[in-house]
Amino acid sequence: MMTLTESAIELAAATGVNVIVTHHPIADVLDIVELSVLCIGQCPAVVPGPVACKDFLAQFLPGLRINEQADGSFTEETAAHTIGNVRSFSSNFLVVVRAFCYILTLGREGIPEASTTAVLNANYMMHKLSGHYKMAYDHTCMHEFVMTLEQEKHQRNVSALDIAKALLDHGIHPPTMYFPLIVHEALMIEPTETESRETLDEAVQIFLDVLAESEAHPEKMHEYPFETPVRRLDEVGAARKPVVRYLYSNE
Predict the structure, then answer these.
(1) For residue 122, which of 193, 37, 39 has the smallest C-alpha distance?
(2) Are 188 and 215 in contact (CB under 8 A)?
């Protein structure tokens, strides 16, 4: 553990250590997560990050606490009333390493700039698609926005899945589908800070083209994708009769 300071937060977010928040107006406990944008392709989107708490909870924290001394050295101690050790799980270690390298590459100035650009890109795409697709939350967004295809599903039997599958034939990886769960036929779009205005405009046009095709040929939408090596899979069969290992032949 370490006290949360401005200089420590970048390291904490990258390494997954626990931190202690001395002052926060609302929360007693914070879970600081790293998103897939930061962790470069981690799935699911949220990976483990540092857990922060206020001083009065520090005595119950699990495991060892790392204290930074005035001379810059570190000491270890166990909390007085610790709940005990928590089983560690480090399979996401390389993802955290990539996140740490990305943080070091961006630097203190680059991190807020990247965040600002991601928010700008999301609002730009949302504005361009509004009036064509229905937004689940019609207000300024952060780094992502959610569209609902509920109307298309009821009127033309075109689902969010159909739109996502059609995007594949246009060279776009589909956005997150059916999340959040409280939004029916949801598509959640997260354009990252690395996308230029040109690529955003191209993506917007593809979304509009797919929507227009769904209006003109709704039945065709159930057949997408056509150009991918593997087309639609039997997802129900895969869920009910999963094949959890592949047996190679002796040839």
Answers:
(1) 193
(2) no
